[in-house]
Amino acid sequence: MQTLDMADIELREMNATLHAQAENTNQTAWEIKNPRGAHAIACGLDAPIEVTVKGSTGYYCGGMNKQATINIKGSAGPGVAENMMSGTVVIEGDASQYAGATGHGGLLVIKGNASSRCGISMKGIDIVVHGNIGHMSAFMAQSGNLVVCGDAGEALGDSLYEARLFVRGSVKSLGTDCVEKEMRPEHLEILADLLERSGADAKPEEFKRYGSARELYTFKIDNAY
Amino acid sequence: MCGIVGLFLKDKSLEPQLGSLLAGMLVTMTDRGPDSAGIAIYSNETKDQSKIVVQSDTPKTDFDGLEVALANASGVTVGMEVSSTHAVLSVPNGAIDAVRTAIAAVNPALRIMSRGDTLEIYKEVGLPKDVASRFAIDVMSGSHGIGHTRMATESAVTTMGAHPFNTGNDQCLVHNGSLSNHNSLRRKLRREGIHIETENDTEVGAAYLTWRMQNGATLGEALESSLTDLDGFFTFVVGTKDGFGVVRDPIACKPAVMAETEQYVAFGSEYRALVDLPGIETARVWEPEPATVYFWSHSEQPIKEEAA
């Protein structure tokens, strides 16, 4: 286990040390102490390492992640795992607004609640929230899966493209062009896998699926250039 | 951007540290806005006395003999303590309006920062650390306070454009965000006879709350109606003689984090602002909901959360 203590080193040195880890590094386990809500912790990683942040983080923790597993033993500020490409980010506490925004791949697990705009414009990332999510989540979400074990706030999935949304609890309101859809066996299979990988104590049958009705302007072929 | 902080103490033993805790929180938020900074502190209620804080760019000449001139003009006793560009005037209860009139007559160039029984507002152009040290905020004691560091978007970087804004006796407001209907609302409020000094959007927000409360609304009601009458982005933290409140607009783009322990309730634009508070490791930390009024008070029941 390598330890980086942010009481001793600057943020840039900490990130540079993690960036220097190659594909075949032997130093695979890293611990970051004293994060104290700092911004951009463990951003832009691209190696199969496991980083554990011992506390709460500020803006953009784990942003642009590739390959790495990042555990946050606290809560995460705005934009956690923004534009993640692959790998895993697990948050023990809550996540602030736009968690997993624009993410292309990988798995984001939020064990507490996520606030507004969770998974906004997601492009292939899988997000599992054990608690609730706030308003405008999955706005313009293009692909990937958003799983919510609790409740969803207002305007879920507004202007949605092809992302799948699974909610176990209540949905305060659906956004424009977002509708409830039939849960088919292949969806239950996806859900079961995501629930298991994220350690969520929920059954796939308890969820409802929501997706795009494909009625907006963008879906009309006559509007194509 | 802008950074805002607030600290409401439940544990009296922390009161001597209020200034240093609050200043520390605000300095941490410096990179959210370096233009100007201010702190409102509720402290030292003196029996039968109220306070008016005035500001001058030329304190040496303006404050020289000011208390005598104001006493002569108003007919009441006026005490004065100068702190850099600010002076705290102590006046008998009920004499605030008479002394304000006297200030306008004696030296119209003086700017009134705050008025009330316990409220003192200190604000200037500059970094939080410079503003805090200029007024020796870190040695101030008090029961609660709020602070602001500004990244100006809607109006000029001046002392009067700095936050907190005084909205009435012992009431003040800090704002992170930008109001988009402040021009039309300013015209409307001016027609209603509300005094608005600058072109600043937050001053209009503060004046709006004042106007609502002058017309019989409680602070909670005024905050709730602000959700419909104010257009734009805002996270507000308001201070009153007994407590402080938080409200975010329904879109809630502007960040907010709160923490509560047995000893205090704290607000920060970011979690970073809270990390040096005692016992933060075990505090309940959460993000306030959009369009919801939160209020903590020393005098009433400890917590009110009202979905607007």
From TrEMBL, chain A:
Coiled coil: none annotated. GO terms for molecular function: oxidoreductase activity. This is Protein glxC. It comes from Neptunicoccus cionae.
Automatic annotation (TrEMBL), chain B:
InterPro entries: GATase_2_dom, Ntn_hydrolases_N. Pfam families: GATase_6 (PF13522). Residues 2-299 form the Glutamine amidotransferase type-2 domain. This is Amidophosphoribosyltransferase. PROSITE patterns: GATASE_TYPE_2. One of its GO terms (molecular function) is transferase activity. PANTHER family: AMIDOPHOSPHORIBOSYLTRANSFERASE. It comes from Neptunicoccus cionae. Keywords: Glutamine amidotransferase, Transferase.
